[in-house]
Design goal:
Distance between the termini: 44 Å
Oligomer: single chain
Shape: globular
Structural class: mainly beta
Radius of gyration: 45 Å
């Protein structure tokens, strides 16, 4: 009895767990419906989940109670019963804007909103800024000595400046302040004389002084300004940030007014200091800026030497708080710094000053006017539950500062307020009240007036929950009825609480619906009490999962016409749609005709379409006559009107006329054209009269529902009285012709006698002659580079006037009339191409020569549209194509005009018509709307051409562009005859009329051809690679043109058309033309017939002696994805005896047997051998045999069972059901299985051994659970053994679970991990055969806590926090959250917690500014994946007790930055430190930390010893590298160790020696299924190592601070003991500057582009590659790019110039497969070329065995890249030698033979030294002697392989000498503060640094720590693999011992 109770409770818990699991699965499958997540919750939970969620409380409702409202109604809930909620919005106060008031105003003033989660509301807001409202202008000027000329100019312009402000505002004030820098070293020269007067006639140095308070007295301002004198300081960056902050917070002293616009003009020519960048702060001298006002009575800043500069976020916040808009007036020298700074402010302006500030007035006016037109809208005091967006009147989101509101006019915008659904991973209704309710102030940045929005998140509750019915009858008395749902009492289950938690609950028959044979329709799991949980809740629904949401009716191939949802087997249509498939709209809007009627009154509207009656004429879709579908309404009705009215025309036969579908109406007068549909007029050919008629559409109120054709009774005929003039005109014309003939004869015969008279005769006109310059041209076809010849024509005589000369050219005039080719007449109906050239009436530009430019594209469309309109008159003419533009040099005064060349396709017989039409339109100067130059045209065919040229006044020579008609069938020697035919315009005579062109055809040097006439490609291939071959007859280069054309495939629908020219080198024999294939659209795939799609590629125009060969055309067939071949074993088992060797096992292939396919096979569990091979099926083969000969292997043949497995099929094949088979080998003769009748309850195998179970299925049911089900099979097994193991582990390590039923639940698994499983049955005789292996991955789970927290202390108020990825990611990490809270000694919070979310999981660090000084903070970090947030990793630290970072370490790039002092609105305010501006101390020129420098880190170690002992530093840089960070403190006996947490196989042991003690930690690792990717980034680390020797006292303390990053590393050391002491150093600034210069490389000149970023390679084929890059930063406009590439092992460097800066990719063809290429990309501006970005890539593919450099057609291809040698590690051996070591590349390009090392001075000078190192070891080292101190060297290491050379690894190194006796000249004022430490007096040691690195390609991401320890000349090296997880609490350390399964 007790056992039964326990079983009952266990069943109850299991059922509840399964029910919860079902709910979770439902949620995971419907993430797009927020209501799904709370389906199991209460009615209130439902309404609070989402704005559109509704709840159905009806007791009889069977659908999901919580769902979207439309879904609940579709499931059968009545609309009256459905419970919904709705938010509200009320405008409580709205006063209209009074434009007469000259002050800023907003409307409305008060709004109240109550929003549901996810709800949005919009408010229309009006703002008003006066035209000349109150203005406060404060000028803040740099008074360093370099600004002396600027100050003098400003003094001269004092009056003009005051007048400017008067113009800008009628109510103004103007003030003036000045600044220099902190009066402290090193910013200021502290010598007394310099403190008194830093420069001649200058004031003492100061930080900031308010000189002139804001005043409206312009004369007072001018007089006070004249008194000012310049001052000075040392370094280039100035302390302007101190001045800006004081000017902002000291409102009373400055004089800012309440209702005015506040402008601050900041004028300087230098960069700026900011928080934590100065040497004083890095030494811990200055406190953080307290943001307070500290001005004395004279307006001077008093705390400049006591606190630090403010940070950028601080300035942004304070200026915004006080409504101050900055205007940066800066020179070119520092413009780029302030340009980046401007972007941080909501509204700011920047202007470029002249070097003497002479343009400051113009700059200020432009800036103020620009600011007045901008407005930045902000939402202040916004609760976290709300999100605000500001939109323009069109509803588009507008960025800050982008509202273009005009002063003096009312501006309008929309404010959108949205209530979030989730905040911090929790539902918004579960948040604290301050987070979901508050008063939001919406206002422009410069306004005081604001819209006050009282916003609340509405969290509704259901009234029905207050009236629960206990023990309700519907719930069978076993539960309470709440809102229509039963809430069961303990021990009862089911929707109606009618099922007890007993064994009866397991009955699956309850899950069978009417007529069903499978529980839950086979689509779900049957749980207790007949509850079905569908496998796919988003697809299957219903009580028994009987409804399929994809099984409703379709229309046009779309489910429910995409206008509804499939609910319970029927389409629930959206509003406005009806029908079984939602195919019919409810409205008849689609049936409305142009008159607003329905179907033109002729038809009826059925299902949204007009159903028209039968008609003899074509009707439109709205049943109107469709004359336009023919040739137009006039042309379509002309014949019928003419035959009915006048009995003439083509339908004058009565039978034809009676067929007309309408009757005419005679009228005496026609209506106005605007009152009718169309007005038509035509000429009657029979009487030459014109008749007119109108077409009038029917009117809705008319009785006649047809068009009316109203014909004017009277024709317009020419008057008969003028006919008598015709004979007279003919007679006069004949008389004139006779006179002209006589005149011509007279001139010709008397020219020599009457020369003086000839000039007076109109017919001769001075004897002007035109003609060809030469008589004959002789050309060789092999040398032709063009298909045209420019033949000059000259003009003699008086040059005045214009002559147009027409010409023609005829091909093959050398052939006699009886020549066979001359006798063969071409087909006149054949469609040929007509090249046409015209001179446009517009100048030629360079852009027109580049087809890809916008100018060329626009003009090309304009030309095509107009020419198509003109040539459509030609029957059979097609649209023009191949349009290009050029100019002709020798064209007289028109040579700068553009000539368009295009091609018109038309029938051959239309040539004369095309010539006439072209000539006619060219004479008029217009082709439709296209303007052309009269007098020039060319029309050609393939054998003749005609054209015209023009001689302008003063022009004596013009070229005729003669086509040469080069064809393959030409004779070896052919002649063309060019003839000047006539002069239609002008008075010149034709002199030399003819010119002969002879072309000699030599033997071809090469033959171009496709390899085959047809190709077939699948759409899935993506690209069709069509080879073009060249047969070389003679060496030499040649060219050929290729072009695609449509057949049944369509351009831009099935493929992308290509055309171009291919150039073959002297030895090149093949090139590939890639044609991109497009995927079918859904419409094409569903609605159209799948016809065969084909296109053709043609070769034409072979040049340079080549000709076309056998296949000048090929046809490409685009096949849809074929079904894959299926390969499997023929039988599940095979039986052999030991005497029957060899064993033959057949493999069969089904489906798609006409393609080649391959599959691999291997043996498993064989005792004597492990075999594997590949089966290759040729086209048509259906069966292959695997033959195993056991005699070929050592040992006797014994009885055994061998398992064979098929795997890794080719890409066009798959493995079928029988992917494994058993080969049973028995003793004696052939083994035959026993009959089933003989075995009864025994196994079907010999000896009683059981066969394997069948139909094994695995399904993950949770993060740590997998459910298995299988069929028992034959026999009578006693039980089953389930074997399971982690994917990748050996099967022998599998765990075994023994079960008695054919199902199992695996528990205790690892989340998000791949497992492999098998099952076998067993009985008394032993185990049976195993099933096939199945794999399954467990579900994701919440991640574990992040790895180690490390702190890089930058200053007492600024720290950088970093952390490691969680050891248990349990999925893919998507975000991190950092919370930092000030706490007291009892770990209790003493201030608000700040929370920052970092959405980029790769950025595992955060820079926090403005922390409270000497305050202990608790930092907590947690990770997030798709499941949710994991636990926190926390640490506590007080920055004041930590050493600061070394001064030369730059801020890490791409690190988010937050301001600890900002309000809640700044929680999401993230800047990135690669955007923070830097000015290195001591720099003579400004500097900025940009992208180029963002990859450069520094690891500096400075040991300063008392006693002046020498120190030698080794600084280096190598790439790529990642390092480990640790913190040590020796004095207190505590230590902290932080390392990366990674995964690897095997175990490790770590031993650390600290203060004589030993600390050990053991780590045992297990393998994980992880989704990881590594990128070989260009990462550069810098190292400085110390080499010390001396005697020291005992250690008083040792400190270490470090930080680790995936992109760079920073380390610093300091040692302390006793009181703090100052050390002295010489030229610290210069040393730091030089070190920065060495490590950062030489700075680029201004305007030179940076390095292009993100070099991306995309394979288009085995020999084609697309190279892309991102545009680099550049201060000037880019002019283009250059792409260089060559084989990695050497060869010709190829260059591609990209002249369009908008293009950032190129496609490179003809690469060699399986060869590594080096690519370089650089950008160009007007200042020159920038640095190169390099990349190495290889396209791997199968190649033709007979041609290793030719890829196998159709073979797959992949991209790979060889890796460089491991990070370079430098060790100083002496002042002039070092040891260089590196690791073997993980992916070398071939087998490594050795390495080549080069060494050269970084900045030039000296010889390049080269070293060769042989061998292929895991780690290699080299000693380099004869180096020079203090000279930076660049080392390159390159692997030498069997394939050539791999990529290089670079490193920069400097051996620096520091002389401890060289002290600073400033004895009393130390420039550098360092902690002093003492070493034990007995110790004399040579110290080195542990260098840790992470190679991105190291196996499984394992961390390698390489430690060098050198003592007394001995060198030992340890290599450890470790994973340690630690947490930091106060000063103590807690070490967790991590155990993982191996």
């Amino acid at each position: 009895m007790q056992l039964r109770k326990e079983m009952g409770r266990w069943t109850l818990h299991l059922s509840a767990g399964l029910w919860l699991l079902a709910v979770l699965l439902t949620c995971s499958c419907a993430q797009d419906n927020p209501c799904y997540a709370v389906r199991a919750g209460t009615c209130s939970d439902c309404l609070q989940a989402w704005k559109d969620c509704a709840y159905c409380p009806e007791e009889t409702f069977k659908g999901p109670r919580c769902d979207l409202y439309e879904n609940i109604i579709a499931h059968g809930c009545s609309a009256a019963a459905a419970i919904t909620a709705e938010g509200s919005m009320t405008i409580e106060r709205k006063q209209r804007i009074d434009m007469k008031l000259q002050q800023s105003q907003v409307s409305p003033q008060q709004v109240r909103m109550s929003l549901l989660p996810g709800e949005e509301r919009e408010v229309d807001v009006e703002v008003f800024a006066p035209t000349k409202g109150p203005l406060d202008l404060y000028i803040l000027m740099d008074f360093s000595n370099s600004m002396v000329d600027d100050l003098n100019n400003l003094k001269r312009m004092g009056t003009q400046l005051a007048n400017l402000v008067k113009d800008l505002s009628d109510d103004y004030t103007i003030g003036f302040g000045k600044f220099v820098d902190k009066v402290v070293e090193p910013q200021t020269d502290m010598r007394p004389s310099k403190l008194k007067e830093p420069w001649p006639n200058s004031d003492p140095p100061f930080a900031f002084q308010n000189v002139i308070k804001l005043t409206s007295d312009a004369s007072f301002f001018d007089s006070e300004l004249q008194k000012e004198k310049i001052s000075g300081n040392l370094d280039a960056p100035e302390g302007g940030f101190d001045a800006i902050l004081q000017a902002a917070v000291c409102g009373d002293q400055i004089g800012w007014r309440g209702n005015s616009t506040h402008l601050l003009v900041f004028s300087t020519e230098s960069s700026f200091h900011y928080e934590a960048d100065g040497i004083n702060v890095l030494s811990g001298i200055l406190a953080r800026n307290d943001e307070g006002c500290h001005l004395d009575a004279e307006g001077k800043y008093t705390k400049d030497t006591q606190q630090d500069y403010p940070s950028i976020p601080t300035l942004v916040r304070l200026l915004g708080k006080h409504n101050i808009i900055p205007i940066f007036a800066v020179t070119d020298h520092s413009y780029t710094y302030y340009e980046k700074l401007r972007d941080y402010f909501p509204i700011a302006e920047i202007g470029r000053l002249q070097e003497d500030s002479s343009n400051i007035l113009t700059l200020m006016r432009a800036a103020v006017e620009s600011i007045r037109g901008k407005m930045s809208i902000r939402a202040e005091d916004k609760p976290k539950a709300f999100v605000t967006n500001f939109l323009d009147t069109r509803g588009r989101v507008v960025q800050y500062g982008a509202f273009d509101f005009k002063p003096g006019a009312i501006g309008n915008f929309k404010m959108k307020l949205s209530a979030q659904q989730m905040v911090g991973g929790k539902p918004v209704c579960q948040q604290e009240l301050p987070g979901k309710q508050g008063l939001i102030r919406v206002k422009p940045t410069t306004f005081n007036a604001a819209v006050n929005v009282d916003a609340t998140v509405l969290c509704p509750t259901c009234e029905c929950e207050k009236f629960a019915i206990p023990a309700a009858a519907k719930c069978h008395g076993n539960g309470d009825l709440v809102c229509g749902r039963c809430h069961c009492h303990p021990g009862w289950l089911g929707n109606l609480c009618n099922c007890s938690a007993s064994s009866a609950a397991q009955d699956t028959s309850r899950c069978l619906g009417p007529g069903m044979t499978d529980p839950c329709s086979g689509r779900g799991d049957c749980l207790e009490c007949g509850t079905c949980v569908c496998y796919k809740p988003d697809q299957f629904e219903g009580e028994y999962c009987q409804y399929d949401r994809t099984d409703c009716k379709r229309y046009g191939g779309f489910l429910c016409n995409d206008r509804g949802s499939c609910i319970r087997g029927r389409c629930a249509c959206n509003e406005g749609w009806m029908g079984d498939a939602c195919e019919c709209p409810n409205s008849n809007a689609t049936c409305l005709d142009s008159k607003g009627g329905i179907c033109n009154g002729r038809g009826e509207c059925v299902c949204g379409l007009c159903k028209c009656p039968e008609s003899d004429i074509a009707l439109t879709s709205t049943c109107g006559p469709n004359f336009e579908a023919q040739v137009g309404i006039c042309e379509g009705t002309r014949a019928c009107v003419q035959c009915q009215a006048w009995k003439t025309g083509e339908n004058k036969d009565k039978k034809e006329c009676d067929k007309c579908p309408f009757k005419i109406v005679w009228v005496d007068e026609l209506k106005e054209e605007k009152d009718v549909l169309r007005s038509c007029s035509f000429r009657d050919e029979e009487d030459d009269c014109t008749y007119h008629y109108h077409v009038e559409d029917w009117k809705p109120d008319s009785k006649v529902k047809e068009m009316q054709f109203q014909v004017l009774k009277k024709k317009d005929c020419p008057p008969a009285s003028l006919l008598w003039l015709l004979p007279l005109l003919l007679f006069l014309l004949l008389l004139l012709a006779l006179l002209l003939l006589c005149c011509w004869k007279y001139c010709a015969c008397c020219k020599t006698c009457f020369q003086s008279c000839l000039a007076l005769l109109p017919c001769c006109k001075g004897g002007r002659m035109v003609g060809f310059k030469e008589d004959e041209y002789l050309l060789r076809q092999s040398l032709l580079t063009s298909d045209h010849l420019d033949t000059p024509m000259v003009r003699t005589g008086p040059p005045k006037g214009t002559d147009v000369v027409r010409w023609k050219v005829t091909d093959n005039v050398h052939r006699s009339p009886n020549h066979p080719q001359a006798l063969t007449k071409p087909n006149p109906k054949e469609t040929i191409q007509f090249p046409i050239s015209l001179r446009l009436n517009r100048l030629f530009t360079e852009n027109l020569s580049r087809p890809e430019t916008r100018d060329a594209e626009q003009l090309r469309h304009e030309v095509a549209d107009n020419l198509n309109e003109v040539y459509k008159q030609i029957p059979g003419a097609q649209k023009v194509q191949k349009t290009s533009f050029r100019k002709q040099k020798n064209a007289g005064k028109r040579q700068d005009f553009a000539i368009v060349d295009t091609v018109l396709s038309a029938p051959r017989s239309s040539y004369p018509d095309i010539v006439k039409l072209t000539q006619k339109n060219v004479q008029s100067g217009n082709l439709n709307d296209l303007k052309v130059v009269p007098g020039y045209y060319t029309v050609a065919t393939d054998r003749e051409a005609a054209g015209a040229i023009e001689f302008q006044e003063g022009v004596g020579s013009v070229d005729v562009h003669v086509p040469l008609f080069a064809k393959e069938e030409d004779d070896d020697k052919k002649q063309l005859l060019v003839e000047a035919t006539d002069v239609p315009l002008g008075i010149a005579e034709i002199g030399k009329r003819f010119v002969n062109i002879t072309i000699i055809k030599e033997h071809a040097t090469g033959i171009f051809s496709f390899l085959q006439p047809a190709y077939t490609y699948s759409r899935g291939d993506g690209v069709a690679h069509i080879p073009i071959s060249k047969e070389i007859l003679e060496e030499g280069s040649s060219q050929v043109t290729y072009r695609t054309r449509d057949i049944t495939a369509k351009d831009k629908k099935d493929y992308v058309a290509v055309e171009g020219d291919l150039t073959f080198g002297p030895e090149e024999t093949q090139k590939i033309v890639p044609v991109r294939l497009l995927e079918l659209s859904e419409k094409d795939g569903l609605l159209t017939d799948k016809q065969v799609r084909q296109f053709a590629i043609d070769l034409s125009n072979p040049r340079q002696g080549a000709k076309l060969g056998r296949y000048p055309r090929t046809t490409v067939t685009i096949a849809d994805e074929p079904d894959p071949s299926v390969m499997m074993f023929k039988k599940g088992s095979h039986n052999f005896s030991t005497s029957e060797a060899p064993y033959t096992i057949p493999v069969v292939r089904t489906r798609n047997q006409d393609i080649p396919a391959t599959v691999k096979w291997r043996t498993k569990k064989a005792q004597r051998f492990e075999l594997s091979d590949i089966l290759k099926f040729s086209p048509g083969e259906t069966e292959k045999n695997i033959v195993i000969d056991p005699r070929a292997h050592p040992g006797p043949i014994q009885p055994e069972t061998i398992q064979l497995e098929l795997f890794d099929p080719s890409i066009n094949a798959t493995v079928g059901e029988r992917k494994t088979t058993l080969v049973n080998v028995a003793d004696g003769p052939h083994y035959k299985p026993l009959e089933m009748e003989q075995v009864q309850n025994k196994s079907s195998m010999k000896g009683g051994r059981l066969l394997s179970p069948t139909n094994l299925k695995a399904k993950a049911t949770g993060p740590r659970n997998i459910r298995l089900n299988w069929d028992a099979g034959s026999g009578n097994p006693a039980g089953y053994k389930v074997k399971y193991w982690i994917y990748g582990d050996p099967e022998k390590d599998a765990k075994v679970l023994d079960v008695k039923t054919p199902q199992a639940e695996l528990t205790g698994l690892y989340p998000y991990c791949d497992y492999e499983m098998r099952v076998c049955s067993y009985n008394a005789l032993g185990d049976g055969s195993d099933t096939d292996m199945v794999t399954c991955q467990t579900l994701e789970d919440a991640p574990g806590e992040p790895g180690r927290l490390a702190f890089n202390v930058i200053s007492p108020t600024v720290t950088q926090v970093s952390w490691g990825e969680p050891a248990e990611t349990n999925g893919n990490i998507t975000a991190y959250e950092v919370i930092y809270t000030p706490i007291d000694d009892e770990q209790k919070a003493v201030g608000p917690a700040k929370k920052v979310k970092i959405d980029n999981p790769k950025k595992r660090m955060l820079l926090i500014e403005n922390l409270q000084r000497a305050q202990t903070y608790q930092y907590k970090v947690r990770a997030m994946n798709s499941i949710g947030w994991g636990p926190f990793k926390d640490a506590t630290i007080n920055l004041a007790s930590q050493p600061t970072r070394p001064m030369s370490i730059p801020i890490i790039p791409d690190v988010p930055i937050v301001d600890a002092e900002a309000g809640d609105e700044y929680d999401g305010y993230l800047m990135y430190s690669n955007e923070v501006l830097r000015s290195p101390t001591g720099s003579k020129t400004p500097s900025v930390s940009g992208d180029d420098y963002a990859t450069n880190g520094k690891w500096e170690q400075n040991f300063l010893f008392p006693g002046g002992s020498a120190t030698r530093n080794l600084s280096s840089s190598s790439s790529p590298m990642s390092t480990m960070g640790s913190n040590y403190k020796g004095a207190g006996g505590s230590f902290v160790t932080d390392t990366n947490t990674t995964y690897m196989s095997g175990g490790s042991r770590r031993t650390d020696m600290i203060r004589g003690g030993m600390h050990s930690s053991e780590v045992i690792m297990r393998k994980r299924s992880e989704n990881r990717s590594y990128m070989d980034e260009n990462i550069r680390d810098s190292i400085v190592m110390g080499d010390v020797s001396g005697n020291f006292s005992d250690i008083g303390g040792f400190g270490y601070a470090g930080m680790q990053s995936s992109s760079q590393s920073q380390f610093g050391y300091s040692l302390s003991g006793g009181p703090r002491a100052r050390t002295e150093s010489s030229d610290v600034n210069d040393a730091l500057y030089n070190l920065d210069r060495v490590l950062y490389d030489a700075r680029l000149s201004p305007g030179v582009p940076d390095t292009p970023s993100r070099l991306v390679f995309s394979a288009l084929g085995p020999t084609a590659l697309k190279v892309s890059w991102q545009e680099p930063r550049c201060d000037r406009e880019l002019q283009g790019y250059c792409v260089l590439y060559q084989l990695l092992n050497g060869g010709k460097m190829n260059t591609i110039n990209v002249t369009n800066p908008g293009e950032n990719s190129v496609i490179i063809q003809d690469l060699l497969p399986n060869q590594s290429y080096l690519f370089k990309v650089k950008a160009k501006s007007q200042e020159g070329w920038g640095p190169e970005r390099e990349g190495v890539i290889t396209i791997e593919s199968a190649v033709d065995p007979n041609s290793p450099l030719s890829p196998m057609p159709g073979s797959p291809f992949t991209l790979s890249t060889p890796s460089a040698p491991g990070p370079l590690v430098f060790t100083a051996l002496s002042p002039d030698s070092l040891q260089l070591s590196w690791e073997k590349p993980r992916k070398p390009n071939g087998d490594i033979l050795g390495y080549v090392v080069t060494c050269e001075q970084l900045h030039g000078g000296g010889d390049v030294r080269s070293f060769e190192v042989n061998g292929d070891t895991a780690e290699t080292s080299l000693t380099v002697p004869n180096l020079t101190e203090n000279i930076p060297y660049k080392f390159k290491v390159q692997a030498r392989t069997t394939q050539g050379f791999g990529p290089e690894r670079e490193g920069i190194i400097t051996i620096e000498s520091q002389d401890g006796s060289s002290l600073s000249q400033f004895n009393s004022q130390s420039m550098l503060s360092r902690e002093v430490f003492q070493m034990p007096t007995e110790v004399s040691t040579r110290m080195n640094v542990s260098h840790t690195m992470m190679d991105p390609f190291f196996s499984d991401g394992a961390m390698m720590t390489t430690q060098h320890t050198e003592t007394s000349g001995m060198v030992t090296r340890q290599v450890t693999k470790e994973v340690v997880q630690r947490s930091v609490m106060g000063g103590a350390t807690v070490t967790k011992k991590m155990f993982y399964e191996s």
